[in-house]
Amino acid sequence: MNAPLRKAGVVIFVLFGLLFANLNWIQAYKADAYRTDEHNGRVRIAEYSTPRGVIEADGQALAESKATDDTFKFLRTYPEKEAYAPVLGYKGVQMPATGIERAENEFLSGASDKLFADRVSAMFTGDEAGGGNIVLSLKTKAQETAYKQLINNERGAKKGSAVAIDPRTGAIQAMASFPTYDPNPLASHDTDAASAEYSELDADKDKPLLNRAVSETYPPGSTFKVIISAAALKNGYDQSTEIPAGEEYIAPGSGAPIRNAEDQTCPGRKVSLKEALTDSCNTGYAQLGVELGGEKVKQEAKDWGFEQEDLTIGNLKGDGLSVAASRTGEILNPDGSIDQAALAQSSIGQKDVRMTTVEGAMIAATVANGGKQMKPYLVQQQLSPDRRPIYNANPEVLRTPVNGDVANDLKEMMVSVVENGTGKSAKISGYDVGGKTGTAQNAEGADNHGWFIGFAFNDKGEAVSAVCVMLENVPGGHASAEAARIAGKIMKAAAGGGGD
Fold it and tell me: What is the rounded distance in angstroms from the CA atom of residue 219 to the CA atom of residue 327?
Protein backbone atom coordinates (compact mmCIF):
# COMPACT_ATOMS: atom_id res chain seq x y z
CA MET A 1 0.00 0.00 0.00
CA ASN A 2 1.44 3.33 -0.99
CA ALA A 3 1.88 6.16 1.50
CA PRO A 4 -1.10 8.36 0.47
CA LEU A 5 -3.54 5.45 0.74
CA ARG A 6 -2.07 4.46 4.09
CA LYS A 7 -2.55 8.00 5.42
CA ALA A 8 -6.12 8.14 4.12
CA GLY A 9 -6.85 4.79 5.80
CA VAL A 10 -5.53 6.07 9.14
CA VAL A 11 -7.67 9.21 8.91
CA ILE A 12 -10.80 7.19 8.10
CA PHE A 13 -10.04 4.77 10.95
CA VAL A 14 -9.65 7.68 13.39
CA LEU A 15 -12.90 9.29 12.18
CA PHE A 16 -14.81 6.03 12.61
CA GLY A 17 -13.29 5.71 16.08
CA LEU A 18 -14.43 9.20 17.02
CA LEU A 19 -17.91 8.54 15.60
CA PHE A 20 -18.15 5.29 17.58
CA ALA A 21 -16.99 7.02 20.78
CA ASN A 22 -19.48 9.86 20.32
CA LEU A 23 -22.33 7.39 19.71
CA ASN A 24 -21.49 5.53 22.90
CA TRP A 25 -21.17 8.82 24.80
CA ILE A 26 -24.67 9.82 23.71
CA GLN A 27 -26.19 6.41 24.44
CA ALA A 28 -24.42 5.76 27.72
CA TYR A 29 -24.04 9.17 29.29
CA LYS A 30 -26.22 11.77 27.54
CA ALA A 31 -29.35 9.77 26.80
CA ASP A 32 -31.09 10.71 30.01
CA ALA A 33 -30.26 14.39 29.61
CA TYR A 34 -31.62 14.46 26.06
CA ARG A 35 -34.65 12.44 27.07
CA THR A 36 -35.57 14.82 29.88
CA ASP A 37 -34.52 18.09 28.24
CA GLU A 38 -37.34 20.65 28.51
CA HIS A 39 -37.00 21.44 24.80
CA ASN A 40 -37.87 17.87 23.90
CA GLY A 41 -41.51 18.01 22.75
CA ARG A 42 -42.14 14.40 23.73
CA VAL A 43 -40.93 15.17 27.25
CA ARG A 44 -43.42 17.99 27.61
CA ILE A 45 -46.27 15.83 26.31
CA ALA A 46 -45.30 13.02 28.70
CA GLU A 47 -45.06 15.48 31.60
CA TYR A 48 -48.63 16.60 31.02
CA SER A 49 -49.99 13.08 30.52
CA THR A 50 -50.56 12.65 34.28
CA PRO A 51 -51.91 15.16 36.80
CA ARG A 52 -49.38 17.29 38.65
CA GLY A 53 -49.83 17.29 42.42
CA VAL A 54 -51.92 19.85 44.27
CA ILE A 55 -50.41 22.75 46.23
CA GLU A 56 -52.69 23.61 49.13
CA ALA A 57 -52.99 25.45 52.43
CA ASP A 58 -55.64 25.11 55.14
CA GLY A 59 -57.32 22.44 52.98
CA GLN A 60 -57.75 24.89 50.10
CA ALA A 61 -56.30 24.08 46.66
CA LEU A 62 -54.04 26.88 45.46
CA ALA A 63 -52.61 25.11 42.39
CA GLU A 64 -54.12 22.05 40.72
CA SER A 65 -54.28 20.23 37.39
CA LYS A 66 -57.51 19.92 35.40
CA ALA A 67 -58.16 17.43 32.59
CA THR A 68 -58.34 18.77 29.02
CA ASP A 69 -59.00 17.25 25.60
CA ASP A 70 -55.95 18.73 23.87
CA THR A 71 -52.41 17.38 23.31
CA PHE A 72 -51.41 18.26 26.86
CA LYS A 73 -53.91 16.27 28.88
CA PHE A 74 -53.77 18.34 32.08
CA LEU A 75 -53.85 22.13 32.50
CA ARG A 76 -52.24 23.76 35.53
CA THR A 77 -54.66 26.20 37.16
CA TYR A 78 -54.45 28.70 40.02
CA PRO A 79 -57.91 29.32 41.52
CA GLU A 80 -56.85 32.24 43.74
CA LYS A 81 -54.97 34.01 40.95
CA GLU A 82 -52.95 37.04 42.13
CA ALA A 83 -53.09 36.62 45.91
CA TYR A 84 -50.74 33.61 46.09
CA ALA A 85 -48.73 34.08 42.88
CA PRO A 86 -45.53 35.45 44.52
CA VAL A 87 -45.27 32.25 46.60
CA LEU A 88 -46.59 29.62 44.16
CA GLY A 89 -44.99 30.98 41.01
CA TYR A 90 -46.21 29.17 37.89
CA LYS A 91 -45.55 26.08 35.77
CA GLY A 92 -45.64 26.87 32.08
CA VAL A 93 -45.41 24.49 29.15
CA GLN A 94 -42.25 26.05 27.69
CA MET A 95 -41.12 28.52 30.36
CA PRO A 96 -39.13 27.42 33.42
CA ALA A 97 -41.18 26.97 36.57
CA THR A 98 -40.88 29.55 39.35
CA GLY A 99 -41.67 29.80 43.06
CA ILE A 100 -42.77 26.69 44.95
CA GLU A 101 -43.70 25.16 41.59
CA ARG A 102 -39.98 25.20 40.78
CA ALA A 103 -38.65 24.31 44.22
CA GLU A 104 -40.95 21.27 44.55
CA ASN A 105 -41.07 20.37 40.87
CA GLU A 106 -39.77 16.81 41.21
CA PHE A 107 -42.25 15.95 43.93
CA LEU A 108 -45.20 17.65 42.24
CA SER A 109 -44.43 15.96 38.92
CA GLY A 110 -44.12 12.53 40.56
CA ALA A 111 -40.47 12.10 39.49
CA SER A 112 -39.04 12.31 43.03
CA ASP A 113 -37.26 9.26 44.47
CA LYS A 114 -39.58 9.65 47.45
CA LEU A 115 -42.44 8.51 45.19
CA PHE A 116 -40.65 5.52 43.63
CA ALA A 117 -42.83 2.99 45.47
CA ASP A 118 -45.96 4.82 44.28
CA ARG A 119 -44.78 4.64 40.66
CA VAL A 120 -44.04 0.91 40.95
CA SER A 121 -47.41 0.31 42.59
CA ALA A 122 -49.17 2.18 39.80
CA MET A 123 -47.49 -0.05 37.21
CA PHE A 124 -48.99 -3.16 38.79
CA THR A 125 -52.43 -1.75 39.62
CA GLY A 126 -52.89 0.17 36.39
CA ASP A 127 -53.76 3.28 38.37
CA GLU A 128 -52.74 6.73 37.19
CA ALA A 129 -49.46 7.59 38.94
CA GLY A 130 -49.79 11.35 39.29
CA GLY A 131 -47.62 13.71 41.30
CA GLY A 132 -47.20 14.26 45.01
CA ASN A 133 -49.04 17.00 46.88
CA ILE A 134 -47.55 19.95 48.76
CA VAL A 135 -49.16 21.41 51.89
CA LEU A 136 -47.97 24.94 52.63
CA SER A 137 -47.71 26.53 56.06
CA LEU A 138 -49.67 29.59 54.90
CA LYS A 139 -52.72 30.66 56.87
CA THR A 140 -55.21 31.50 54.15
CA LYS A 141 -56.92 34.22 56.23
CA ALA A 142 -53.58 35.87 56.92
CA GLN A 143 -52.43 35.58 53.29
CA GLU A 144 -55.62 37.02 51.86
CA THR A 145 -55.67 39.79 54.48
CA ALA A 146 -52.07 40.71 53.65
CA TYR A 147 -52.84 40.80 49.93
CA LYS A 148 -56.04 42.85 50.27
CA GLN A 149 -54.59 45.30 52.77
CA LEU A 150 -51.50 45.90 50.65
CA ILE A 151 -53.33 46.57 47.40
CA ASN A 152 -55.99 48.67 49.18
CA ASN A 153 -53.58 50.54 51.47
CA GLU A 154 -54.83 53.91 52.66
CA ARG A 155 -51.79 55.94 51.58
CA GLY A 156 -51.69 55.25 47.85
CA ALA A 157 -48.53 53.14 47.84
CA LYS A 158 -48.14 51.22 44.57
CA LYS A 159 -45.56 48.66 45.69
CA GLY A 160 -44.85 46.70 48.83
CA SER A 161 -44.72 43.37 50.59
CA ALA A 162 -45.61 41.66 53.84
CA VAL A 163 -44.42 38.53 55.65
CA ALA A 164 -45.89 36.88 58.75
CA ILE A 165 -44.09 34.09 60.65
CA ASP A 166 -45.02 31.83 63.53
CA PRO A 167 -42.21 32.83 65.94
CA ARG A 168 -42.25 29.42 67.66
CA THR A 169 -41.67 27.31 64.54
CA GLY A 170 -40.56 29.52 61.64
CA ALA A 171 -43.64 28.56 59.61
CA ILE A 172 -44.53 31.29 57.12
CA GLN A 173 -48.14 32.35 57.77
CA ALA A 174 -48.34 34.92 54.98
CA MET A 175 -46.10 36.17 52.18
CA ALA A 176 -47.61 38.81 49.93
CA SER A 177 -46.12 41.12 47.33
CA PHE A 178 -47.66 43.78 45.11
CA PRO A 179 -48.07 44.57 42.32
CA THR A 180 -48.59 40.94 41.43
CA TYR A 181 -49.95 38.90 38.51
CA ASP A 182 -52.36 36.17 37.50
CA PRO A 183 -50.32 32.98 36.85
CA ASN A 184 -53.07 31.28 34.83
CA PRO A 185 -52.22 32.87 31.43
CA LEU A 186 -48.57 31.87 31.96
CA ALA A 187 -49.62 28.23 32.39
CA SER A 188 -51.74 28.26 29.23
CA HIS A 189 -51.26 25.47 26.70
CA ASP A 190 -51.29 28.19 24.04
CA THR A 191 -47.54 28.75 24.21
CA ASP A 192 -47.62 31.86 22.00
CA ALA A 193 -50.18 33.51 24.25
CA ALA A 194 -48.23 32.49 27.37
CA SER A 195 -45.00 33.94 25.94
CA ALA A 196 -46.76 37.18 25.02
CA GLU A 197 -48.19 37.46 28.55
CA TYR A 198 -44.76 36.86 30.07
CA SER A 199 -43.13 39.47 27.82
CA GLU A 200 -45.72 42.04 28.84
CA LEU A 201 -45.27 41.33 32.55
CA ASP A 202 -41.48 41.27 32.25
CA ALA A 203 -41.47 44.65 30.50
CA ASP A 204 -43.69 46.29 33.13
CA LYS A 205 -41.62 48.93 34.95
CA ASP A 206 -43.28 48.00 38.27
CA LYS A 207 -41.96 44.41 37.94
CA PRO A 208 -45.05 42.44 39.03
CA LEU A 209 -43.23 39.12 38.55
CA LEU A 210 -40.93 39.90 41.50
CA ASN A 211 -41.60 38.48 44.93
CA ARG A 212 -40.54 41.65 46.73
CA ALA A 213 -40.68 39.94 50.12
CA VAL A 214 -37.60 37.84 49.36
CA SER A 215 -35.87 39.33 46.31
CA GLU A 216 -35.67 43.05 47.10
CA THR A 217 -33.73 44.93 49.78
CA TYR A 218 -34.47 48.44 51.04
CA PRO A 219 -33.15 50.88 53.66
CA PRO A 220 -34.97 49.75 56.82
CA GLY A 221 -35.07 53.10 58.58
CA SER A 222 -35.79 53.02 62.28
CA THR A 223 -36.66 49.30 62.38
CA PHE A 224 -32.88 48.85 62.46
CA LYS A 225 -32.88 50.46 65.91
CA VAL A 226 -33.95 47.08 67.30
CA ILE A 227 -30.55 45.72 66.19
CA ILE A 228 -28.72 48.69 67.77
CA SER A 229 -30.77 48.20 70.96
CA ALA A 230 -29.73 44.55 71.08
CA ALA A 231 -26.06 45.52 70.70
CA ALA A 232 -26.40 48.03 73.52
CA LEU A 233 -28.13 45.54 75.85
CA LYS A 234 -25.38 42.99 75.17
CA ASN A 235 -22.73 45.58 76.02
CA GLY A 236 -23.72 46.76 79.47
CA TYR A 237 -26.73 49.00 78.78
CA ASP A 238 -30.20 48.37 80.17
CA GLN A 239 -33.62 49.80 79.41
CA SER A 240 -33.16 52.69 81.85
CA THR A 241 -29.63 53.63 80.75
CA GLU A 242 -29.59 57.21 79.57
CA ILE A 243 -28.04 57.92 76.18
CA PRO A 244 -27.19 61.29 74.59
CA ALA A 245 -30.01 62.72 72.48
CA GLY A 246 -31.01 66.30 71.61
CA GLU A 247 -32.57 68.07 68.68
CA GLU A 248 -29.68 67.35 66.32
CA TYR A 249 -26.39 65.50 66.14
CA ILE A 250 -23.42 66.04 63.85
CA ALA A 251 -21.20 62.97 63.72
CA PRO A 252 -17.42 63.32 63.58
CA GLY A 253 -16.36 64.01 60.03
CA SER A 254 -19.87 64.99 58.91
CA GLY A 255 -21.20 68.42 58.05
CA ALA A 256 -24.83 67.28 57.84
CA PRO A 257 -26.79 67.10 61.11
CA ILE A 258 -29.03 64.16 61.97
CA ARG A 259 -32.40 65.33 63.25
CA ASN A 260 -35.52 63.67 64.63
CA ALA A 261 -38.69 63.20 62.63
CA GLU A 262 -40.57 65.60 64.92
CA ASP A 263 -39.26 68.55 66.94
CA GLN A 264 -40.87 67.19 70.10
CA THR A 265 -39.03 63.85 69.83
CA CYS A 266 -36.34 63.56 72.55
CA PRO A 267 -35.37 67.26 72.56
CA GLY A 268 -33.62 66.84 75.94
CA ARG A 269 -29.91 66.27 76.34
CA LYS A 270 -30.41 62.65 77.43
CA VAL A 271 -33.10 59.96 77.13
CA SER A 272 -33.41 56.39 78.40
CA LEU A 273 -32.85 53.56 75.95
CA LYS A 274 -36.48 52.47 76.30
CA GLU A 275 -37.78 55.98 75.68
CA ALA A 276 -35.45 56.36 72.69
CA LEU A 277 -36.96 53.28 71.01
CA THR A 278 -40.51 54.19 72.03
CA ASP A 279 -40.29 57.63 70.43
CA SER A 280 -37.82 56.61 67.68
CA CYS A 281 -35.09 59.05 68.66
CA ASN A 282 -32.74 59.45 65.70
CA THR A 283 -30.19 61.60 67.50
CA GLY A 284 -30.05 59.12 70.36
CA TYR A 285 -29.49 56.06 68.17
CA ALA A 286 -27.00 57.80 65.89
CA GLN A 287 -24.85 58.64 68.91
CA LEU A 288 -25.40 55.20 70.44
CA GLY A 289 -24.17 53.49 67.27
CA VAL A 290 -21.06 55.67 67.19
CA GLU A 291 -20.43 54.91 70.87
CA LEU A 292 -20.76 51.14 70.29
CA GLY A 293 -18.49 51.25 67.25
CA GLY A 294 -18.73 49.98 63.72
CA GLU A 295 -17.49 46.47 64.37
CA LYS A 296 -20.08 45.81 67.08
CA VAL A 297 -22.89 47.26 64.96
CA LYS A 298 -21.93 45.14 61.94
CA GLN A 299 -21.46 42.01 64.05
CA GLU A 300 -24.80 42.47 65.80
CA ALA A 301 -26.61 42.74 62.45
CA LYS A 302 -24.79 39.62 61.26
CA ASP A 303 -25.84 37.78 64.42
CA TRP A 304 -29.48 38.44 63.45
CA GLY A 305 -29.12 37.24 59.86
CA PHE A 306 -27.65 40.12 57.88
CA GLU A 307 -25.07 39.08 55.27
CA GLN A 308 -26.50 35.54 54.92
CA GLU A 309 -26.37 34.66 51.23
CA ASP A 310 -27.69 31.09 51.20
CA LEU A 311 -31.08 31.38 52.90
CA THR A 312 -33.98 29.72 51.09
CA ILE A 313 -37.58 29.43 52.23
CA GLY A 314 -39.43 26.30 51.20
CA ASN A 315 -38.71 22.77 52.35
CA LEU A 316 -36.46 22.60 55.42
CA LYS A 317 -34.70 19.62 53.86
CA GLY A 318 -34.59 20.88 50.30
CA ASP A 319 -34.91 23.82 47.96
CA GLY A 320 -37.05 26.92 48.29
CA LEU A 321 -37.41 30.58 47.40
CA SER A 322 -34.01 32.29 47.42
CA VAL A 323 -33.75 35.22 49.83
CA ALA A 324 -31.53 38.18 48.97
CA ALA A 325 -28.91 38.99 51.59
CA SER A 326 -29.62 41.93 53.90
CA ARG A 327 -26.56 44.18 54.24
CA THR A 328 -25.12 46.80 56.58
CA GLY A 329 -22.65 48.21 54.06
CA GLU A 330 -18.93 48.74 54.60
CA ILE A 331 -19.12 51.86 56.88
CA LEU A 332 -15.43 52.51 56.08
CA ASN A 333 -13.25 55.44 55.07
CA PRO A 334 -10.89 54.99 52.08
CA ASP A 335 -8.06 54.20 54.51
CA GLY A 336 -10.04 51.32 56.05
CA SER A 337 -10.98 53.08 59.29
CA ILE A 338 -14.60 53.34 60.44
CA ASP A 339 -16.47 56.23 58.82
CA GLN A 340 -18.15 57.81 61.87
CA ALA A 341 -20.61 59.83 59.80
CA ALA A 342 -21.66 56.73 57.87
CA LEU A 343 -21.91 54.78 61.13
CA ALA A 344 -24.25 57.38 62.60
CA GLN A 345 -26.49 57.19 59.54
CA SER A 346 -26.31 53.39 59.46
CA SER A 347 -27.39 53.20 63.11
CA ILE A 348 -30.75 54.69 62.17
CA GLY A 349 -31.15 52.33 59.20
CA GLN A 350 -29.97 54.70 56.48
CA LYS A 351 -26.76 55.10 54.43
CA ASP A 352 -26.01 51.66 52.88
CA VAL A 353 -28.08 49.47 55.22
CA ARG A 354 -30.49 47.28 53.24
CA MET A 355 -33.00 44.69 54.48
CA THR A 356 -35.55 42.29 53.04
CA THR A 357 -39.09 42.07 54.33
CA VAL A 358 -38.38 38.48 55.36
CA GLU A 359 -35.44 39.60 57.51
CA GLY A 360 -37.64 42.20 59.21
CA ALA A 361 -40.20 39.53 60.12
CA MET A 362 -37.43 37.24 61.36
CA ILE A 363 -36.09 39.96 63.66
CA ALA A 364 -39.51 40.47 65.25
CA ALA A 365 -40.04 36.70 65.50
CA THR A 366 -36.68 36.25 67.25
CA VAL A 367 -37.58 38.77 69.94
CA ALA A 368 -40.97 37.11 70.43
CA ASN A 369 -39.34 33.65 70.67
CA GLY A 370 -36.99 34.53 73.50
CA GLY A 371 -33.92 35.11 71.31
CA LYS A 372 -34.12 31.95 69.17
CA GLN A 373 -34.45 32.58 65.45
CA MET A 374 -36.22 29.67 63.78
CA LYS A 375 -35.43 28.75 60.19
CA PRO A 376 -38.36 30.00 58.08
CA TYR A 377 -40.20 27.52 55.89
CA LEU A 378 -43.20 27.29 53.56
CA VAL A 379 -43.58 23.54 52.96
CA GLN A 380 -45.42 22.01 55.91
CA GLN A 381 -45.94 18.58 54.35
CA GLN A 382 -45.29 16.45 51.30
CA LEU A 383 -48.09 13.95 50.64
CA SER A 384 -48.09 11.03 48.22
CA PRO A 385 -50.75 10.95 45.48
CA ASP A 386 -52.99 8.99 47.88
CA ARG A 387 -52.22 11.61 50.59
CA ARG A 388 -49.87 9.48 52.66
CA PRO A 389 -47.41 11.72 54.59
CA ILE A 390 -43.92 11.56 53.09
CA TYR A 391 -42.41 14.61 54.84
CA ASN A 392 -43.46 16.73 57.80
CA ALA A 393 -41.64 19.94 58.68
CA ASN A 394 -39.63 19.61 61.87
CA PRO A 395 -38.81 23.17 63.07
CA GLU A 396 -35.12 24.04 63.34
CA VAL A 397 -33.29 26.79 65.24
CA LEU A 398 -31.33 28.82 62.70
CA ARG A 399 -29.38 31.00 65.16
CA THR A 400 -29.62 32.54 68.64
CA PRO A 401 -28.52 36.17 68.39
CA VAL A 402 -29.47 37.12 71.98
CA ASN A 403 -30.23 35.34 75.23
CA GLY A 404 -33.63 35.27 76.92
CA ASP A 405 -32.91 38.28 79.15
CA VAL A 406 -31.97 40.54 76.25
CA ALA A 407 -34.93 39.26 74.22
CA ASN A 408 -37.27 40.05 77.12
CA ASP A 409 -35.87 43.60 77.38
CA LEU A 410 -36.36 44.09 73.65
CA LYS A 411 -39.90 42.72 73.92
CA GLU A 412 -40.78 45.19 76.68
CA MET A 413 -39.28 48.07 74.70
CA MET A 414 -41.15 47.10 71.55
CA VAL A 415 -44.43 46.73 73.45
CA SER A 416 -43.85 50.29 74.67
CA VAL A 417 -43.51 51.42 71.05
CA VAL A 418 -47.03 50.15 70.30
CA GLU A 419 -48.60 51.16 73.62
CA ASN A 420 -47.04 54.59 74.00
CA GLY A 421 -45.04 55.49 70.92
CA THR A 422 -44.94 55.48 67.14
CA GLY A 423 -46.57 52.07 66.59
CA LYS A 424 -50.03 52.63 68.06
CA SER A 425 -51.74 51.79 64.76
CA ALA A 426 -50.70 48.13 65.21
CA LYS A 427 -52.73 47.57 68.38
CA ILE A 428 -55.03 44.51 68.40
CA SER A 429 -57.77 44.12 70.97
CA GLY A 430 -57.14 41.10 73.19
CA TYR A 431 -53.44 40.74 72.25
CA ASP A 432 -50.16 42.11 73.57
CA VAL A 433 -48.50 43.70 70.56
CA GLY A 434 -44.96 45.00 70.25
CA GLY A 435 -43.12 46.42 67.31
CA LYS A 436 -41.04 49.11 65.68
CA THR A 437 -41.91 51.56 62.96
CA GLY A 438 -39.51 52.75 60.31
CA THR A 439 -39.56 55.62 57.84
CA ALA A 440 -36.72 55.42 55.34
CA GLN A 441 -35.39 57.95 52.89
CA ASN A 442 -34.32 56.17 49.72
CA ALA A 443 -33.65 58.58 46.86
CA GLU A 444 -33.47 62.32 46.39
CA GLY A 445 -36.93 63.66 45.66
CA ALA A 446 -38.62 60.28 46.24
CA ASP A 447 -41.31 59.61 48.81
CA ASN A 448 -40.23 57.71 51.91
CA HIS A 449 -40.63 53.97 52.47
CA GLY A 450 -42.81 52.87 55.37
CA TRP A 451 -41.96 49.88 57.60
CA PHE A 452 -43.31 48.06 60.59
CA ILE A 453 -41.92 44.97 62.28
CA GLY A 454 -43.80 43.47 65.20
CA PHE A 455 -45.30 40.53 67.07
CA ALA A 456 -48.47 39.53 68.89
CA PHE A 457 -48.99 37.43 72.04
CA ASN A 458 -52.37 35.96 72.93
CA ASP A 459 -53.96 35.97 76.39
CA LYS A 460 -52.13 32.72 77.19
CA GLY A 461 -48.78 34.40 76.69
CA GLU A 462 -48.09 32.55 73.42
CA ALA A 463 -46.34 34.30 70.55
CA VAL A 464 -48.85 33.74 67.76
CA SER A 465 -47.42 35.82 64.94
CA ALA A 466 -44.55 38.08 63.93
CA VAL A 467 -44.80 40.32 60.91
CA CYS A 468 -43.02 42.80 58.68
CA VAL A 469 -44.85 45.17 56.34
CA MET A 470 -42.96 47.28 53.83
CA LEU A 471 -44.57 49.98 51.67
CA GLU A 472 -42.47 51.59 48.96
CA ASN A 473 -42.44 55.33 48.26
CA VAL A 474 -45.57 56.25 50.19
CA PRO A 475 -46.93 59.64 49.07
CA GLY A 476 -48.00 62.21 51.63
CA GLY A 477 -46.23 60.91 54.72
CA HIS A 478 -47.43 58.68 57.59
CA ALA A 479 -45.85 55.74 55.80
CA SER A 480 -44.90 53.75 58.89
CA ALA A 481 -48.28 54.29 60.57
CA GLU A 482 -50.00 52.67 57.60
CA ALA A 483 -47.53 49.78 57.63
CA ALA A 484 -48.30 49.32 61.35
CA ARG A 485 -52.05 49.32 60.72
CA ILE A 486 -51.73 46.66 58.04
CA ALA A 487 -49.43 44.59 60.27
CA GLY A 488 -52.04 44.54 63.03
CA LYS A 489 -54.65 43.24 60.59
CA ILE A 490 -52.34 40.48 59.35
CA MET A 491 -51.36 39.33 62.84
CA LYS A 492 -54.98 39.25 63.95
CA ALA A 493 -55.87 37.08 60.95
CA ALA A 494 -52.88 34.80 61.54
CA ALA A 495 -53.98 34.32 65.13
CA GLY A 496 -57.41 33.17 63.99
CA GLY A 497 -59.35 36.43 64.07
CA GLY A 498 -60.72 38.42 61.18
CA GLY A 499 -58.23 40.47 59.27
CA ASP A 500 -60.20 42.55 56.81
Answer: 9
